[in-house]
Write a structure and sequence with these properties.
about 775 residues; alpha+beta; six-stranded mixed beta barrel
C-alpha cells in the first residue's frame, strides 16, 4: 500500500509540474529563511551558557534614586566589602576594561581592545580554562598576565609564552603567567588579556575608592541564596560608604543570562545584542514561514477539484477517510522533504551573506539541526494537515457529480489566506521604508560639527609630549587644514563630576567634561553661541576657564552664564563661552550636557587621547603616508593606526543598519514567495473558469473586461491586506522610533508606497495569466473539459 501511495504521489507531481515546483520552491525558501533566523536567535540566546555555575553568577547594577538609568559602574572598594561582610557570596571580582592601547613583544606590536584588569576570583567565577601555566592562581603577582591562545599565537608564534614579557604602552612590563583557552564567541566578555588590578592601582589610586565608579563587579552566590536579601545587603554597604549625601542607590543583581540581551545598561563593557531585535527577527521568520505554508494550503485546496473524482472513486471502492488522510499527508510530507533538501543547499549558499549581514559565524552543524527539524515538522504538519483533511472530506456523490461546486465552498478561506500573506508582505515593506528613512535621517542630520574629512590618531608617548611641534609639522602639509588634541575620542567622554556654581539651589549636579586644545573648536567647526573660544592669548584659560555647550547651560539652569564662576573636581574658574550643541553620541540619546576645559598637561592624554586632523579629502593615501612617517619619528616602537571620525560615528548605528538590510532582503523574499503563490493560485482559478471565459467572449466581452473580471478579486484581497497591515505597521514602527531621541516624523508615504508596491506586483502577476486566458480562442475555451 505504501508503494502504491508513493507511486500515486509521483504521478500527481508529474501531472501538475508547475504547481508542484511553485509549492516546493516556496516551502524551500520559507524553511531556509526561518532556519537561518532561528540559528541566529539560538546563538543570541546561548550567550554565557557554557559557564558551569551560570545560574549563580550575577552582575551588580546600580540605580540612583529618582533616575531611570541603571549602570554597571561600581566603586573600586565595594568588592572587598562584599567579600568580607556577606557570607552568601562565595566569590567576587572586579572587572575593569582597559582602553585601546598597544602591547609590544620584541618587533611585534598590536593595539588591544579586549584587555582587562581582573581579581583573582575572576577565574573561579567564570569558566575560562587555563591550558598552559599557573592554572591554580593565574593572577597572583602584580605583573601577572593571562592571555588567550589567539593572543599567544599572535605575539609568540609557536614558542611557549609562559614567562615571556609583554610591554604595555611603553610603560609597564607584564609577565605571562598563563594561557587560557580562546573565549567562545557567545561570551559577553571577549577577553584576550587579563592583568591584576594591583599594578593599575599603584599608578591610579583614585580609581580604587568609594567615590570613583568605574569598575564592573561580578559575584557568584551560594546555591539557593536569597538574591533579594543579598541585594539589600550590598545596598546597605554601598550607601553607608557613599560620600554624597543626596546620592542613594538601589542595587540590582543582574543574572548572567540577562547581560547580553540587555543593551541599555551604562558603564558596561559587555558585548551586547538587542532583545527587541531578537523578537523582530523571530516575527519575520514566523511570518515568512507562514507565507510559504499558506501558499501550499491555498494552491492545494484550489487544486482540489482535480483530485475530487479520485477521492470519490476511492471511497466508493471502500477506502476509509483515515486511509485517504494518510495518503495525502504522505504526499505533503514527501513535498516537504524535497523542499527541505533544497532548503539545505539554499542555506549553505546564503549563510556567508547572512553571516556578513549579522556579523556572526553561523554554520550548519549539530546545533542547527534541532531548529531545522522542528521547522520541517511544523511545515509538514501545518501546511499538509488542512489540505489532507479537506480533500478526504469530499462526499462520494458530490465528488463524482459536482466537484466544482464543492471546491468553490472554500473560497472564503482562500481569500483570508491570501489577505494574510499580503498583510505580512506589506508590513515588512513598510518597516523597510521607515527603517531606511530613519537611517537616511541619521546620516544626513546636521550634528553641530564636521564629521567628514576628519581622522584621528592616538596621542601616544612622545607624540603627545611634543604636540605643538607635531601640530606645526602636520599643518605644513597642504592637505591638512586643522589639527587639535582631545583627551578622548569625541564620541566618548571619559570624565564627569560635580559642578557647583554661584546661586545654586542644590548641592551640585554631575556633568560630563572633556579637555581639548584651543584649536579644537575650529578643527571640528563647532559654532560659538556667545562669548569666545579658548585662546593662547589668555593665560588663565589653561586652568581657570570653561566653555559650556547649550545643553549644559540649560541643565544647570544658568540665565547669564558668561563670567559666572563655577568649580569642578580639579579646577575653579569662569565661563568664557557657550558653544552650540553637538551630537557626538548616538541620536538614540538626547544631547549630553558638556563642559569643555583647556588641556594644560599634554602628557595626561597618553592613555585615551587622540590627535584630530582635518584634511581636504584629496590624495588620502599620500596624506596617510606622511602622517605615518611623522608617527615613526616620534614613536618608532609603537604601531601606527588611524580612524576616520565619520566611520566611528556610523558604528553607533550598526544595529539599525543591520535591521535595515534584514528588512530589505526579507521583505523581498516575502513578496517573492507571496507572488509565486499568487501566480499558482491564479493559474488554477483561471483554469477553473476557462469555459466561463469562452462564453463571455462569445457574448461580446472584450479582453479588457475579461481581464478585469479575473483580476478584481485578487486586487480586492491586496487592498484589504493593506487596510489590515497599515495600523499594525504604524504601531510597530512608532515603538521602534521611540528608541531615538531624534527621529523622523512618521508620514503616510511609506504606507502608500508599500501598498502601491504590493498592489502593482499583484496586478502584474495576475494580469499576465488573465490576459493570456482572455486572449485565447473562445472555441478552444468552450471545448475545455
Amino acid at each position: 500500500m505504501l508503494r502504491n501511495y508513493f507511486l500515486m504521489a509521483i504521478r500527481v507531481f508529474k501531472k501538475h509540474k508547475a504547481i508542484t515546483a511553485i509549492n516546493i520552491i516556496g516551502l524551500a525558501g520559507g524553511i531556509a529563511c526561518a532556519t537561518m533566523i532561528f540559528m541566529w536567535v539560538n546563538d543570541e540566546l546561548s550567550f554565557d551558557s557554557f559557564h558551569q555555575n551560570k545560574d549563580q553568577i550575577y552582575k551588580i547594577l546600580l540605580q540612583r534614586k529618582g533616575t531611570d538609568e541603571r549602570t554597571a559602574a561600581t566603586p573600586g572598594l565595594l568588592a572587598a566589602a562584599i567579600k568580607s561582610e556577606i557570607p552568601e557570596v562565595r566569590y567576587v571580582a572586579r572587572v575593569l576594561r582597559n582602553h585601546r592601547n598597544p602591547f609590544v613583544y620584541e618587533d611585534k606590536a598590536f593595539y588591544e581592545d579586549q584587555s582587562y584588569c581582573v581579581d583573582s576570583d575572576f577565574f573561579k567565577i567564570f569558566n575560562f580554562p587555563i591550558v598552559q601555566g599557573n592554572s591554580a592562581t593565574p593572577i597572583e603577582k602584580m605583573d601577572d598576565l593571562v592571555i588567550s591562545e589567539e593572543t599567544a599565537k599572535k605575539y609568540f608564534g609557536n614558542e611557549n609564552p609562559v614567562g615571556k614579557t609583554l610591554k604595555w604602552n611603553n610603560w609597564n612590563e607584564y609577565h605571562v603567567s598563563a594561557v587560557m583557552k580562546n573565549v567562545p564567541a557567545n561570551s559577553h566578555l571577549q577577553i584576550q588579556l587579563a592583568e591584576s588590578h594591583a599594578l593599575t592601582e599603584k599608578f591610579w589610586t583614585d580609581g580604587y575608592s568609594w567615590t570613583n565608579y568605574v569598575h564592573e563587579t561580578y559575584i557568584l552566590v551560594e546555591k539557593n541564596s536569597n538574591v533579594r536579601a543579598i541585594e539589600k545587603k550590598i545596598e546597605t554597604i554601598l550607601n553607608q560608604h557613599s560620600k554624597h549625601a543626596d546620592w542613594y542607590f538601589d542595587v540590582h543583581l543582574q543574572p548572567l543570562s540577562d547581560i547580553h540581551l540587555n543593551d541599555n545598561i551604562s558603564g558596561s563593557s559587555a558585548v551586547t545584542g538587542n532583545r527587541k531585535y531578537v523578537t523582530i527577527l523571530l516575527i519575520i521568520a514566523a511570518g515568512i514561514l507562514l507565507i510559504a505554508c499558506v501558499n501550499f494550503i491555498n494552491i492545494s485546496t484550489a487544486n482540489s477539484m482535480s483530485r475530487a473524482k479520485e477521492v470519490g472513486i476511492r471511497k466508493v471502492f471502500g477506502s476509509s477517510r483515515s486511509n485517504l488522510i494518510f495518503q495525502f499527508v504522505g504526499e505533503f510530507a514527501l513535498l516537504t522533504f524535497v523542499a527541505a533538501l533544497i532548503a539545505v543547499s539554499i542555506i549553505e549558499s546564503a549563510l556567508p551573506f547572512f553571516n556578513q549581514l549579522t556579523e556572526k559565524t553561523l554554520s550548519l552543524d549539530i546545533h542547527s539541526l534541532i531548529p531545522f527539524l522542528m521547522i520541517i515538522v511544523f511545515t509538514a504538519v501545518f501546511a499538509g494537515s488542512y489540505p489532507a483533511f479537506y480533500l478526504s472530506a469530499f462526499p462520494p456523490g458530490v465528488a463524482l457529480k459536482n466537484a466544482r461546486g464543492f471546491a468553490q465552498r472554500r473560497t472564503a478561506l482562500r481569500s483570508i489566506l491570501v489577505i494574510f500573506q499580503f498583510s505580512i508582505s506589506v508590513l515588512l515593506i513598510i518597516c523597510t521604508f521607515v527603517v531606511n528613512e530613519q537611517l537616511s535621517y541619521i546620516q544626513n542630520k546636521k550634528l553641530g560639527f564636521d564629521k567628514d574629512n576628519i581622522l584621528y590618531i592616538p596621542a601616544k608617548s612622545r607624540l603627545a609630549e611634543n604636540y605643538e611641534s607635531v601640530r606645526n609639522r602636520l599643518l605644513q602639509n597642504p592637505e591638512i587644514s586643522g589639527v587639535s588634541m582631545q583627551e578622548s575620542v569625541p564620541t566618548t567622554t571619559i570624565n564627569g563630576g560635580w559642578v557647583r556654581w554661584q546661586g545654586q539651589t542644590t548641592q551640585g549636579l554631575v556633568v560630563r567634561n572633556t579637555k581639548v586644545t584651543p584649536e579644537y573648536f575650529s578643527t571640528m567647526n563647532i559654532g560659538l553661541k556667545e562669548g569666545r573660544y579658548f585662546s593662547k592669548e589668555f593665560s588663565t584659560d589653561k586652568d581657570a576657564s570653561f566653555i559650556l555647550n547649550e545643553a549644559a547651560v540649560e541643565y544647570l539652569g544658568l540665565t547669564s552664564p558668561l563670567g559666572m564662576e563655577i568649580s569642578t573636581f580639579d579646577r575653579v574658574g569662569k565661563i568664557v563661552g557657550v558653544v552650540e550643541n553637538s551630537h557626538f553620541k548616538s541620536l538614540h540619546n538626547k544631547i549630553e550636557p558638556l563642559i569643555f576645559m583647556e588641556l594644560s598637561d599634554y602628557t595626561s592624554v597618553d592613555l585615551f587621547g587622540v590627535v584630530l586632523i582635518k584634511f581636504s579629502g584629496g590624495n588620502v593615501p599620500s596624506l596617510l603616508s606622511s602622517i605615518k612617517n611623522l608617527w615613526g619619528e616620534f614613536n618608532p616602537t609603537l604601531p601606527f593606526e588611524y580612524h576616520f571620525l565619520d566611520q566611528t560615528i556610523d558604528q553607533q548605528y550598526v544595529f539599525e543598519r543591520r535591521l535595515g538590510s534584514i528588512f530589505t532582503w526579507f521583505s523581498l523574499l516575502a513578496i517573492g514567495i507571496s507572488v509565486s503563490g499568487l501566480l499558482g493560485l491564479a493559474v488554477l482559478l483561471i483554469q477553473q473558469r476557462t469555459k466561463e471565459i469562452g462564453v463571455r467572449k462569445v457574448l461580446g466581452a472584450s479582453v479588457a473586461e475579461v481581464v478585469l473580471l479575473l483580476s478584481k478579486e485578487f486586487i480586492v484581497w491586496v487592498i484589504i491586506a493593506n487596510i489590515i497591515a497599515w495600523p499594525i505597521a504604524w504601531y510597530g514602527v512608532n515603538k521602534w522610533l521611540e528608541d531615538f531621541a531624534y527621529r523622523i516624523d512618521l508620514t503616510v508615504w511609506p504606507f502608500v508606497l508599500a501598498g502601491m508596491s504590493a498592489l502593482a506586483t499583484a496586478i502584474v502577476t495576475v494580469s499576465f495569466q488573465a490576459i493570456k486566458a482572455a486572449s485565447a480562442n473562445p472555441v478552444e475555451s468552450l471545448r475545455y473539459e
